[in-house]
Amino acid sequence: MDKEITTLKLKNEEIQEYIGLESPDFPKYVTTFINRANRFSQATRPEKVGQLSELIKEFPGRSVSEWESWYCERHPDAIRNATDKIANMIQNFREALDKVTDEMIENWVRDLIIIKTFVGLHFQEAILKKVAGIKGTTYSLSNEDEESKGIDGFIGSIPVSIKPHTYKEEKELKEKIPAKIIYYEKLNDGVEVDFSEL
Asked: What is the pTM of this model?
Protein backbone atom coordinates (compact mmCIF):
# COMPACT_ATOMS: atom_id res chain seq x y z
CA MET A 1 0.00 0.00 0.00
CA ASP A 2 1.39 3.42 -0.97
CA LYS A 3 2.00 5.85 1.84
CA GLU A 4 -0.37 8.81 1.67
CA ILE A 5 1.33 12.15 0.93
CA THR A 6 0.72 14.58 3.78
CA THR A 7 3.18 17.39 3.04
CA LEU A 8 4.13 19.29 -0.09
CA LYS A 9 6.08 22.31 -1.23
CA LEU A 10 4.78 24.85 -3.73
CA LYS A 11 7.29 27.12 -5.46
CA ASN A 12 6.31 30.74 -6.07
CA GLU A 13 6.14 30.04 -9.80
CA GLU A 14 3.66 27.22 -9.20
CA ILE A 15 1.52 29.40 -6.94
CA GLN A 16 1.41 32.09 -9.64
CA GLU A 17 0.44 29.46 -12.19
CA TYR A 18 -2.33 28.02 -9.99
CA ILE A 19 -3.86 31.44 -9.35
CA GLY A 20 -3.51 32.46 -13.00
CA LEU A 21 -0.78 35.12 -12.79
CA GLU A 22 2.18 35.47 -15.11
CA SER A 23 5.47 37.20 -14.38
CA PRO A 24 7.19 39.19 -17.09
CA ASP A 25 9.72 37.20 -19.10
CA PHE A 26 13.28 38.43 -18.47
CA PRO A 27 16.49 37.56 -20.32
CA LYS A 28 19.02 35.36 -18.53
CA TYR A 29 20.84 37.06 -15.56
CA VAL A 30 18.65 40.19 -15.69
CA THR A 31 16.57 39.47 -12.58
CA THR A 32 19.73 38.60 -10.62
CA PHE A 33 21.29 41.86 -11.74
CA ILE A 34 18.20 43.96 -10.89
CA ASN A 35 17.89 42.18 -7.52
CA ARG A 36 21.49 43.07 -6.70
CA ALA A 37 20.96 46.70 -7.73
CA ASN A 38 17.84 46.79 -5.55
CA ARG A 39 19.79 45.47 -2.55
CA PHE A 40 22.54 48.06 -3.00
CA SER A 41 20.12 50.95 -3.53
CA GLN A 42 17.66 49.76 -0.83
CA ALA A 43 14.91 50.94 -3.18
CA THR A 44 12.19 48.63 -1.92
CA ARG A 45 12.82 48.90 1.84
CA PRO A 46 9.60 49.23 3.92
CA GLU A 47 10.28 52.89 4.68
CA LYS A 48 10.24 53.56 0.93
CA VAL A 49 7.46 51.31 -0.38
CA GLY A 50 5.52 50.44 2.78
CA GLN A 51 5.51 47.27 4.88
CA LEU A 52 4.14 45.02 2.14
CA SER A 53 3.52 42.00 4.40
CA GLU A 54 1.24 44.17 6.56
CA LEU A 55 -0.39 46.05 3.68
CA ILE A 56 -1.43 42.84 1.93
CA LYS A 57 -3.17 41.75 5.16
CA GLU A 58 -5.13 45.03 5.23
CA PHE A 59 -6.08 44.74 1.55
CA PRO A 60 -9.84 44.02 1.31
CA GLY A 61 -9.98 42.97 -2.36
CA ARG A 62 -9.44 39.70 -4.21
CA SER A 63 -7.81 40.42 -7.59
CA VAL A 64 -4.34 41.57 -8.53
CA SER A 65 -5.78 44.61 -10.32
CA GLU A 66 -7.65 45.59 -7.15
CA TRP A 67 -4.44 45.15 -5.15
CA GLU A 68 -2.54 47.37 -7.58
CA SER A 69 -5.15 50.15 -7.37
CA TRP A 70 -5.42 49.88 -3.59
CA TYR A 71 -1.64 49.93 -3.12
CA CYS A 72 -1.02 52.80 -5.57
CA GLU A 73 -3.64 54.96 -3.82
CA ARG A 74 -1.69 54.64 -0.59
CA HIS A 75 1.82 54.82 -2.08
CA PRO A 76 1.39 56.71 -5.38
CA ASP A 77 5.11 57.37 -6.03
CA ALA A 78 6.62 54.18 -4.59
CA ILE A 79 7.02 52.17 -7.81
CA ARG A 80 8.43 55.13 -9.79
CA ASN A 81 10.82 56.12 -6.97
CA ALA A 82 12.06 52.53 -6.52
CA THR A 83 12.51 52.19 -10.30
CA ASP A 84 14.57 55.41 -10.41
CA LYS A 85 16.79 54.30 -7.51
CA ILE A 86 17.45 50.90 -9.10
CA ALA A 87 18.11 52.49 -12.51
CA ASN A 88 20.65 54.85 -10.91
CA MET A 89 22.39 51.93 -9.21
CA ILE A 90 22.52 49.99 -12.49
CA GLN A 91 24.15 53.04 -14.08
CA ASN A 92 26.72 52.98 -11.26
CA PHE A 93 27.29 49.28 -12.02
CA ARG A 94 27.81 50.05 -15.73
CA GLU A 95 30.45 52.65 -14.86
CA ALA A 96 32.14 50.23 -12.44
CA LEU A 97 32.10 47.41 -15.01
CA ASP A 98 33.96 49.62 -17.48
CA LYS A 99 36.80 49.82 -14.94
CA VAL A 100 37.12 46.05 -14.35
CA THR A 101 40.27 44.46 -15.78
CA ASP A 102 41.46 40.85 -15.88
CA GLU A 103 44.16 41.80 -13.35
CA MET A 104 41.51 43.19 -11.00
CA ILE A 105 39.46 39.99 -11.32
CA GLU A 106 42.56 37.89 -10.59
CA ASN A 107 43.31 40.01 -7.50
CA TRP A 108 39.73 39.51 -6.30
CA VAL A 109 39.90 35.73 -6.83
CA ARG A 110 43.29 35.54 -5.05
CA ASP A 111 41.94 37.60 -2.14
CA LEU A 112 38.94 35.26 -1.82
CA ILE A 113 40.84 31.99 -2.13
CA ILE A 114 44.06 32.85 -0.34
CA ILE A 115 43.53 35.76 2.06
CA LYS A 116 39.88 35.51 3.14
CA THR A 117 39.99 31.73 3.46
CA PHE A 118 43.14 31.90 5.59
CA VAL A 119 41.66 34.67 7.75
CA GLY A 120 38.41 32.71 8.12
CA LEU A 121 40.29 29.68 9.39
CA HIS A 122 42.81 31.54 11.58
CA PHE A 123 40.87 34.30 13.26
CA GLN A 124 41.35 32.94 16.79
CA GLU A 125 44.67 34.70 17.28
CA ALA A 126 43.13 37.99 16.19
CA ILE A 127 40.34 37.51 18.78
CA LEU A 128 42.89 36.74 21.52
CA LYS A 129 45.00 39.76 20.59
CA LYS A 130 42.02 42.14 20.49
CA VAL A 131 40.52 40.93 23.79
CA ALA A 132 43.94 41.05 25.50
CA GLY A 133 44.35 44.64 24.28
CA ILE A 134 40.95 45.60 25.71
CA LYS A 135 41.82 43.89 28.99
CA GLY A 136 45.24 45.58 29.08
CA THR A 137 47.18 42.33 29.22
CA THR A 138 49.07 39.87 27.03
CA TYR A 139 47.84 36.86 25.10
CA SER A 140 49.36 33.58 23.95
CA LEU A 141 48.25 30.64 21.86
CA SER A 142 47.93 27.22 23.47
CA ASN A 143 50.40 24.37 22.97
CA GLU A 144 49.35 20.91 21.75
CA ASP A 145 48.69 19.58 25.25
CA GLU A 146 46.53 22.58 26.19
CA GLU A 147 44.74 22.41 22.85
CA SER A 148 43.85 18.76 23.48
CA LYS A 149 42.02 19.93 26.64
CA GLY A 150 39.97 22.47 24.66
CA ILE A 151 42.10 25.51 25.50
CA ASP A 152 42.73 27.76 22.50
CA GLY A 153 44.93 30.32 24.24
CA PHE A 154 45.42 32.59 27.21
CA ILE A 155 44.38 36.14 28.03
CA GLY A 156 47.08 37.01 30.56
CA SER A 157 47.16 33.80 32.62
CA ILE A 158 43.48 32.94 32.09
CA PRO A 159 42.91 29.93 29.80
CA VAL A 160 40.25 30.57 27.17
CA SER A 161 38.37 28.52 24.62
CA ILE A 162 36.97 30.19 21.51
CA LYS A 163 33.62 28.77 20.43
CA PRO A 164 30.85 29.70 17.97
CA HIS A 165 27.84 31.42 19.57
CA THR A 166 25.72 28.30 18.96
CA TYR A 167 27.86 26.54 21.58
CA LYS A 168 25.93 28.43 24.28
CA GLU A 169 22.82 26.34 23.60
CA GLU A 170 24.80 23.10 23.41
CA LYS A 171 27.05 23.88 26.39
CA GLU A 172 25.31 21.46 28.78
CA LEU A 173 25.85 18.60 26.36
CA LYS A 174 29.53 19.33 25.77
CA GLU A 175 32.67 18.31 27.58
CA LYS A 176 33.83 20.40 30.52
CA ILE A 177 36.55 22.74 29.30
CA PRO A 178 38.91 24.10 31.97
CA ALA A 179 38.74 27.59 30.49
CA LYS A 180 36.64 30.72 30.16
CA ILE A 181 34.74 30.75 26.88
CA ILE A 182 34.88 33.50 24.29
CA TYR A 183 31.95 33.24 21.89
CA TYR A 184 32.00 34.45 18.32
CA GLU A 185 29.51 34.78 15.49
CA LYS A 186 30.71 35.04 11.91
CA LEU A 187 29.19 37.97 10.03
CA ASN A 188 29.48 38.91 6.36
CA ASP A 189 32.19 41.42 7.17
CA GLY A 190 33.99 39.77 10.10
CA VAL A 191 33.11 38.30 13.50
CA GLU A 192 31.17 39.49 16.53
CA VAL A 193 32.87 38.52 19.80
CA ASP A 194 31.37 38.02 23.28
CA PHE A 195 34.01 37.78 26.00
CA SER A 196 31.68 38.47 28.92
CA GLU A 197 32.87 35.34 30.78
CA LEU A 198 36.24 37.04 31.30
From this structure: 0.60
